[in-house]
Amino acid sequence: MKTEFHKYLTVFRKQRGYTQAQLADKLGISRSTYANYESGSRSPDFETLERISDILNCTLDELFGRQRETEEGNHENLCGGYTETACESVTPYRAEGEKSRRQSKRKLLIGAQDFRYLRERNAYYVDKTQFVEQFLDSWYQVTLITRPRRFGKTLNMSMLAEFLDCTKDSEALFKGTKISKSEVIDEINQYPVVFLSFLNVRGDTPHEMIQQLTVALQGEYARYYPIINAGTLTKEQKRVFDQNYLCLCQNDSPEEKAGCLTHAIADLCQVLETYYNKKVYLLIDEYDTPFIAANSGGYYSQVRGLLAGMLSSALKGSSSLEKAVLTGIQRVAKENIFSGLNNLIVCTIADPDYDDCFGFTEDEVKELLAYCGMEFTESIREMYDGYRIGKADVYNPWSVSCYAARRELQSYWVNTSENSILKDALGERGRSFAEDYDKLIEQGAVEAEVELSAAYYEKPGDAALWGLLINAGMLTISEKIDENRYRLRVPNQEVWKAFGELTSYYLRKRESMSFFSEKYSELMDQFGISKKMVLSTAENNIVSSRMMSVIQINGKLYFQTDKTFRKYRQIVQNPNVSLCIDNIQIEGRCKEIGRPLENNEFLQKFQRCFPDSYKRYSLLENEVLFEMTPTYIERWVYIDSVPFIEIYDVSNEEYRLDEYKGR
């Protein structure tokens, strides 16, 4: 159906204050691709649509021209008359006084993740309010729930916050839901709540991530700012609140913001407890996003202290906490955020807790499709069913909702950007994983050791990779065999299609890695045991070069230097260096591994190859040994008098031969 999506996209972008270039960067696409979206010459896929709606804080229906009701009950038409909808089964919101069967029919708001927004617009809602009762009845102070993306985590957290928050009036929103028939309804809007979403806390640099983290906390500080002048808080509490809020709002340096962020959540909880005379509920959605993004971006070590400190102080160091719930795709165990918590429950998809709260049951799917005038068929079950969470069999809620809206049985959930994480992980694994992976593809199921208690990047290994595939929704558990051993299977046809692409990539990668290994071994054999090479180091935009005696051991390069020398300081400051000789340039990363005397293999080879240098320097007290791990190598070669560049991308285990074309 023809839409005016491009016009609404332009309006929402301008309203939110983004340029085309800024929004393209946030989406991770080229600026020309984004410009084509706004010109109408190209349409984004569903994955990109959802990201656009998240960034612009609007629903997919609004992006396709749905009218949005204003507080006065009138229609706000953002584009001057365009009112086309995303799908014909969805009807526009109407003022209460207007009568017609079509007008009174509830809408299907694809992409809406705000509970109040959804309920106030009389949208179709698959009732998951049992989540509230299960959470309040739990004996655990801190709850961590891991589920695949798009399984309803954000909407459930929004619903929980709406129910608990004492600053809200939410009774009408829960009318007719399961929770309204429970005794728990008496607790509605009775507690102070801090609700944070880390969904967009990511970036290409530590500075960008810290800025996004600042934005996430800024909103809650702004929401509670009026209470500081109510006369209830101590002078010290007012000072700390003001200081934190000022730091969050001003354009301070990343270091200053990091110092404030570390204790900002705990400080806010303490202020709220004093003001309301009640302990605080802390809700953090997508808590693991910044950890994953920092690891992918290569700056994890620069923000790990901040992220771990902020969450640890809020969860372990705050006496103002009543309960906390965090959601994410996987557990972050490395930073000991949850260690020392005696009252913690981690609910993975293998556990029965909250098993019916995320994902649609078959009865819920049938009810939704009947409401949309559609039949439930075996094809729908084969396409979207198959997930086992705890003791519940559930469907992928995103895919089912999109199918109900578009009425086309196709893949909606699987996307290439998510698969990039899996591709990287698959490319790193060895022969043992390859055998089990082949069995999975051939038979549709496999028995394996699974690690669900830590993120893959923290604990790389076969068990953690199987855990990553489960947490990502690519596999599901069909049977528990032993403590950490499960029988796994691909859940449905939608995911099987993704495995086709993933397997094709994996086979190409394995072949490429095997070829690279051969070529790299040949290169190191030709390099030999030792070489005199030019070492280039850089510090504060100053590059220095000097001749070094280098030893090669098992594909890594070693050299020694005096720690009082400038080159030592440069390497410590910036461990990225290069070594050159004749037609070869080797780029890599250095690390100090002690004194030469402490490494017998190096010392023996160095003494044999460079006896004079050994006598003069190796036994000195200040002498230190560096190990360089190559990451990228270029070698110039001539084939039939034609110049070529051999490229060894060591980090990705890829080799290629490029003809030199000149400048």
From TrEMBL:
HTH cro/C1-type domain location: 9-63
Pfam families in UniProt: AAA-ATPase_like, HTH_3, PNPOx_N
PROSITE patterns: HTH_CROC1
Superkingdom of origin organism: Bacteria
InterPro entries named among the record's database cross-references: AAA-ATPase-like_dom, Cro/C1-type_HTH, Lambda_DNA-bd_dom_sf, Pyridox_Oxase_N, Split_barrel_FMN-bd
CDD domains in UniProt: HTH_XRE (cd00093)
GO molecular function: DNA binding
Protein name: AAA family ATPase
